[in-house]
Amino acid sequence: MRELVYLSERKLRQFDLQRRRWPGRGRVEGEVKIPGVGGLKVGPGPGEPPAADLDAVLAALDSSDRAAKWFADDGVRPGDWVQFEAPMSYTCAWFAAVFVDLDQATESYPTGGAIRLLLHGSEQHLAGAQSGRGNYDASAGYLPEPTGSDLLRVVTLLKRLPDDTGQSLFTEAGDDPLSEKFGRVVDALSERLAVRHTGAWMGGYARVTGVLGHTAERRIVTATPLYVEYLSEPG
Fold it and tell me: How confident is the model at residue 217 (pLDDT cuts 50, 70, 90)?
């Protein structure tokens, strides 16, 4: 049984497990059962293929040459599928959902702080929630709707987040590298979401959109999730 936080029907439709064209006639609808919430109706729009079953997609993906890697592996590159388990908090504002991991190492999460994980997607794929965690001050600045999966669009998604003075965390002056700017945004999100106090163990699969070396001691992995679910803390 999965307790889903996020499920991208759009990504599920990208997998054609039967290797055939869909006729695109009518609508095929289904229902995702979410514990404590009920049923979430999902269905393709006109001319869209029906979404494949999540477990079938994961089985097919893991048996292919694009099998998911562990998100903290050294060889992870943009476009790769990765599996993750981490203590995370999330927020959403203006069509965007953003997840960020714990910023320090623990016994259960030894890569915390050294390898940061930031997930970004569409708010409409959050299961059973319209506003995510309420500990982000949406009035301070909205996040625009994500329109793609590459790193530049992640920057577009986050660059309007203000600092304590109300200015953008992405300053235009100087030779500040993109990875350093992005590192400040990830740190600001961690602080605003109080991940050390609000983070819950989550896991899932995601497609990598960017890998940035913020410093010699830290790497930031950004990815767009296929699904996110609650997990028990590893023993």
Answer: confident
User: Rounded to an integer, what distance in angstroms lies between the CA atom of residue 167 and that of residue 160?
Assistant: 8
Question: Tokens 């999730």 belong to which residue?
Answer: 225
Give the burial string for 12-33 (b: 16+ CB within 10 Å, else e): bbebeeeeeeeeeeeeeeeebe
User: Residues 6 or more apart from 121 whose CB is under 8 A from it?
Assistant: 6, 8, 96, 97, 146, 224, 225
Whether pTM > 0.90 for this model: the answer is no
DSSP, collapsed to helix, strand or coil, labels residue 60 as helix
Q: Dump pLDDT digits (tens) for 31-67.
A: 544 444 444 454 555 555 566 789 999 999 999 999 9
Q: CA 135: distance to chain centroid?
A: 18
Pairing, β 200-215 against β 115-122 = unpaired
